[in-house]
Write a structure and sequence with these properties.
By secondary structure, the chain is mostly beta strands. The chain has a single domain (2-107), classed as Nucleic acid-binding proteins (OB fold (Dihydrolipoamide Acetyltransferase, E2P), Beta Barrel), CATH 2.40.50. Helices cover 8% and strands 56% of the residues. The chain is built from 1 helix and 6 strands; from the N terminus they run E-E-E-E-H-E-E. It has one helix at residues 61-69, and strands at 8-14, 19-22, 28-41, 47-59, 75-88, 94-107. The protein has a 5-stranded mixed barrel with strand order 1-3-4-6-5. Strand 5 and strand 6 (94-107) form a beta hairpin. The longest helix has 9 residues, at 61-69. The protein is globular and about 55 Å long.
């Protein structure tokens, strides 16, 4: 039960191809933003959509695996954990980031239309 304390699962659409950044000591990180759409009806009964964007990070071997399957527009299922960190930007300002460090990714199978002839 302890591993459920910081656990994220979501399904969304990749906003771009992954961006891979090589780091020191033969490490690397691949990042991508994922759009999650939520649909609801307004008070007037109109259907509406709200899109939220989440930043994903894949480290080392996970980055290699993710690069093979994630392309812009792909619908993907992610499991991972939330991580918060800070850095100093080029302008000297301290910036804060919350991202999902992904442990597992799967491309969601697309449903295909079946055409039958009468």
């Amino acid at each position: 039960m302890n591993n459920l304390r910081n656990s994220v699962r979501l399904v969304g659409f990749a906003g771009s191809d992954l961006v891979v950044t090589p780091l020191d000591n033969d490490k690397k990180v691949a990042r991508v933003s994922v759009a999650i759409n939520e649909y609801y009806k307004t008070k007037t009964g109109e259907e509406s959509r709200q899109t939220q964007w989440f930043n994903l990070a894949f480290w080392n071997a996970k980055a290699d695996d993710a690069v093979k399957v994630i392309r812009k527009g792909a619908e993907i299922a992610i499991e991972g954990k939330l991580v918060c960190h800070s850095y100093t930007a080029k302008d000297g300002q301290k910036r804060y980031i919350t991202e999902i460090v992904a442990h597992d990714v799967q491309v969601v199978a697309k449903k295909t239309k079946v055409v039958t002839e009468a």
